[in-house]
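Okay, can you check this protein?
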Amino acid sequence: MAEPHVISGLKAKRARIAGEIIKAQEIVARRTKELLAIDAVLLLFSPDCDPDMIAPIRPTSHGLFFQYRELGRLCLSARRKGGKPVTLEWIAAVVMAAKGLPDDKRLRKHVLDAARQSLMRMERKGLVRRVMNEPDTWWELAR
């Protein structure tokens, strides 16, 4: 037989997830009603329009600490300041210092993850490139 504390922990976890699912379903139902109302008004003004043919836009979030495209600019600025290939950790530290953010462990992880994503987007555009992946990722400007 399983340990009682394991069973109670699993029950609590299941209850939390079930509650999140119910809340998400309520949000979906409310948003579906809103979408149907917008579709009805759209059809009033443009009867030949097919609302289902309007492509959805994926929602994005810019985070709490950086404005739109600010992190990318700060990463490039930090990268230029380094002169030679630098690590992601170094870039994140320079970005945090430039924004005046406290050196908190959780905040540093958030900035590291966001900077990594930003640098990977810039890599796809050809602005930066990875020099080395192991043990740390080193970045340099693509010339």
User: Anything to note?
Assistant: The radius of gyration is 23 Å. DSSP finds four helices and three strands in the chain. The chain has a mean pLDDT of 88.
